Amino acid sequence: MQNQTEPPPETNSDKDDQAIEFDLSSTTALDLTSFQLHDLDSVELPSSLTELDLTANRLSKLDPRIANLINLRKLSFQQNLIDDAAIESISSWDSLSGLEELVLRDNKLMKVPDVSLFKKLLVFDVSFNEITSLHGMSKVSSTLKELYVSKNEVTKMEEIDHLHELQILELGSNRLRECVALEELYLSHNGISKMEGLSTLVNLRVLDVSSNKLTSVNDVQNLTRLEDLWLNDNQIESLESVAEAVSGSREKLTTVYLENNPCAKSPNYQATLRQIFPNIEQIDSSIFA
Q: Gene3D superfamilies per the record (predicted)?
């Protein structure tokens, strides 16, 4: 978000919130990061606002005036003191139907808030909270492209099957321990642009991330039991980077799909892969005796 105002040069946590007086009548982006605000009583919230950033304050409740900002597209409450009770009112903010980005990162949430009113939501960030379950995620708009839930207490992936437009999913540093025994994982056609959160799946034998938006292969070095790897129909440029990324399973891999990637146009494509993976039995549709 663009900075429209600058925080005071010094803040004193023992003092009352500092009065803020600006002419904001035509402002579209308001950044109040690190103003140490306990509330927004002293802040004008003009109806022209499209972006409101309240990062790193001490807010424990939502100012009801925000619900009337009909032009708002981006809203951040990152690093405040908002809990489940405080966030409940957001479920009735129907005037914010055009909201595209909602950041609730680093607060005191223990469950996924109801954001079903925001039918155009593209970015939803509830990372660095104390959320124990993804229950309620099914109400999030299917328009969502980025979902951040890292650094919580989530134990199970659920209620995200409808997010067909999702490009970024961050679930790192949770408690997805039941996935450790997973042997096969199919993630094709999900719009994934980066491979993350796979390193703990040490029993994985089959990994299908075909038909996504990958430009490289990441986070699979620990997967020493990998036998089938489907990477076709992505945007992966380098065979060498693939070899390095799956070095842990180089001897184990028997099937690799890489067709319809830029790297598949490399000279001696199949010969190179057969050198990299000595026990390979199939490359794309080609099967070797």
A: Ribonuclease Inhibitor
